[in-house]
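Dig into my protein:

:::
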Amino acid sequence: MGQAKLRGTPEQRKQAAIEKQLSLRPKHIICNNCQTELTDINAVDVAELPGIDAAFEAHCPQCGHDTYAIKGEKEAVARLHMAIEDAAGAEAQAGSVPSASGR
């Protein structure tokens, strides 16, 4: 029997992945542009991104800037960071968020 089947049905595995990502959701993200505390945070689908555990995006109502929080392997995070820059057509700023466990 394959390892995937041991972890449950496809639906169960998908639900487990969603729950894992939501458990990593930060309490807030600080806008990289104006330092506003952002609490309206959206999960980014990372199912097809190897090495990324979770990613979240927040849009700042104060300055209109999008800020991302990404958790995963260093190289995978760097690749996603570059992809975001390419999609935005601008240099993205690195920032930090409080740990999800620090709620």
